[in-house]
Amino acid sequence: MRFQFTEAQEAFRKEVVSFLEAEKAADDTPWKSFELIGPSSIEFSRKLAEKNWIGITWPKQYGGREMSYVDKCILSEEMSRFQAPIGYHFLGERQVGPALIKFGTDWQKEYFLPRITAAEEKSSFCLLFSEPDAGSDLAACSTTAKQDGDHYIINGQKTWNSGAHHADWGWLLAKTDFFETTPKHMAFSEFMVDLTLPGITIKPITNMAGEHSFNEVFFDNVAIHKKYLVGIENMGFKQIMAQIDYERSGPERLLQNFPVYEQTIAHIQKMDAASKTHGLYAWIRDAAAQLEIEYTIGRLMCYQTAWTIDQKKVATSQAAMSKAFCTQFAKRLNDVATKIIGPTSQIMSGSDWAPLEADIARSFLWGPSYTLQGGSVEILKNIIAQRGLGLPRN
Amino acid sequence: MDFSITKQHQLLRKSFVDYLKKRCDADSRREWISSENGFSPTVWQEISELGWAGLPFDEKYGGLNGSFFEMLFLFEQLGAFQLYTPLFTSSILTGMVLNEAGSESQKQFHLSRLSDGDAIYAAAYPLQDNYIGVGRGVKAVPVDDTWRLTGTCLFVQYAPIAEKILVLADSDGGSALYPTLFLVDPQAGGATVETLETLGEEKVHTVRLEGAPVDKENIIGDIGKGHQYINNVLPKAMVLKCAEMTGGLQTVLDMTVAYAKQRYQFNKPLGTLQIIQHYCADMFTDLEGARLLAYQAAQRINDGLEYRREAAMAKAWCSDVYPKSCLLTHQIFGANGFTAEYDLHLYTKHAKVSELMFGHSVFHRSAVADAMKI
Question: What pLDDT does B130 receive?
């Protein structure tokens, strides 16, 4: 048992941090993000590709470095801490690559994996899972993929598709078995869809923060070649579930609004003597210390899950716990920060009166999404109870 | 980062569990708790023979020279089984302080007696006072060649059978800033022990000193440096208390999950209800947080790293989640859990007593805030 990093891990983190410090200083666009995936910049992703920092856990034959998930956790932690613009390769690296390595055909691996690790043109992915009537109950999806010769014809509607307006490809879950007696989770397949195909319409959705981050995606007789089917037909649901642990447990869940934390603590440290003698100050210290404790636990949970995956052990309950804990922390942080900063915390950045560079107001408005995206806290708690504690399903 | 537990430690932990499972069944435990001194002398002898009492001490004092990890795993299991013995007060609170502050001959004499369990020593520091006021309860005045101690110590465990009581007393005539450690012999006069009724199940006492004599040989460490010794040991003892709380919480969760599976209402197990599943998931998450923080602090102690900030985090978190989870689980157990017959209340009481020992969450969050420079 050792809660410190190895020298090699510390050296790797240092290398990542120096790189990010230099890049951040050189970038004219401020690095700021309130969402999980963050801004998309093919130029920045290319720079990471040059460092061989995309797909570091993948096998060497697919352009990876066979580094551990703990190493990956270190890399992701720093990317999130700096709010680096990693949106271009984020889902390709996190979702698509590992799925193709496990379930993909030789052609799929040879075609997509080098493009993702090199951040080439046309290698950015979005997810096409949720539908208007299929949220937490993903098995209620009704988008269909009907085989027609060498093609599948896609019809239906997806929604809440973050980054679909930037992405080149979609990772689609669609129904491929239409027998009424087939169990729901045996009726879906996974596909990769070129988003420029005819019949695809992407419509923006404005979120409550007033921003366009996610979309609706419509499919009207979209024909995709069967070579884009991933893994085994009708096993899509199981394939997703087999893959979901690392996706859930990444430190980006803890850190999506990290500047709010950093700057709130800095704000408290700089409070003047009069503020510190105010009765409220005792509560502020207590609240900040509680955040620090929760942040520490969240971070340890992320690393513990990564470590468990490195040991080739099942991490399903652990990953669900980590995600539930971290997203609740991030959401609560926004709320606590507004109380610590006070009335000015509601002012959006740009105004002279906005208290912190971190823009707590905007972060607060993003908060409700944290505990929903990629599996709501409630679904995660079901998984913890059923998979982690063996409580019975209905 | 390495979250593994070595094979050797797994085996050791299994040996703790095996013994406790075999020996500490619910009926026996009830019998021991309700006995005059609140514990089983037979069990005490057995675990001393197993080396548990001497775990923290060097082999030259008859101990096992155990690592802090070994103590962590032991106390986690003692908490899980709610086995009450003099181990914590005698070997940890008293023994580890003697080990820290005692002279070679004092250590040779006292620690070897504690190691083999022949003697039980008690600690009388104002632990329940959030540290504030340490050393204010008892005054020590030199009279000829001896010191005379006067004052009252609360929450002293195993005092009626303690051969010696280690008291932190104000020895500088009033400021209480530089207290000294005195090893009091309660048989030497000037000491009375009374039971202190509290909400807890593990017995505690009031020790009243009225001119209790302590000769020079029984001053522990340098005069006026008592705080220093205590401060080097108590945070470590506190991390072991966190381990004990973690073990207790694990048992509470296990009991709750077992109950939720077997208890039928509305023609189905309680555990199929989503609200019950979510309560259990919350408790499990809180427990994992407690374990991670307690293990982190213990590992830093084990490896000789600075650990006070991590220890404060662990105690703050454990102090919140253990009582909270107990109260939540009472909601699941319904009236059954509210009965004296059912064992759940042992844990609820242990949770509250442990929360208040060494400082509760607000106290330790204040220490964390200090470390954050706010």
Answer: 52
Domain with A117, as residue range(s), is 7-123
Quick one: how far is CA A278 from the chain centroid? 40
Q: What is the DSSP string of A11-53?
A: HHHHHHHHHHHHHHHH-SS-----SSS----HHHHHHHHHTT-
Give chain A's domain count: 3
Query: Is residue A358 domain-shared with residue A257, that is, in the same domain?
Result: yes
Indicate if the pLDDT at residue A248 is higher than 90.
Answer: no
The burial of A186, by beta-carbon neighbours within 10 Å (0-12 exposed, 13-18 middle, 19 or more buried), is given as: middle
B2 CB neighbours in chain A (<8 A) are: 1-2, 307
What is the residue type of B365? R
Predicted complex ipTM: 0.95
Distance, CA of B68 to CA of B303 (rounded, Å)? 9
Residues B259/B343, Cβ–Cβ less than 8 Å: no
Q: Is position A245 within any domain? A: no
Q: Tokens standing for A35?
A: 């969402």
Q: Which residue of B has its CA nearest to A7?
A: B1
Kindly state the average pLDDT of the residues A289-298.
98
Nearest neighbour of B1 by CB, restricted to A3, A289, A388: A3
Residue B122 · residue B84 · CB < 8 Å: no
In chain B, % helix, strand, coil (3-state, to 5) comes to 55, 15, 25
Sheet holding B204-215, edge to edge: B138-143, B146-156, B204-215, B191-196
Q: Do B260 and A391 touch (CB under 8 A)?
A: yes
pLDDT band at B134 (very low <50, low <70, confident <90, very high): very low
pLDDT at A226 over 50: yes
* pLDDT tens for each residue of B333-362: 999 999 999 999 999 999 999 999 999 999
Mean pLDDT of B46-61: 97
**Which domains are assigned to chain B?**
7-120 (1.10.540.10), 122-224 (2.40.110.10), 228-371 (1.20.140.10)
> How far off is chain A from B247, nearest CA to CA, in Å?
16
Residue A38 pLDDT > 90, yes or no?
no
Q: Do the chains contact at A3 and B295, CB–CB below 8 Å?
A: yes
**CA angle in degrees (0–180, nearest 5) for B361-A272-A289:** 20
Same-domain check for residues A98 and A155: no
pLDDT bin (cut points 50, 70, 90) of residue B126 is low
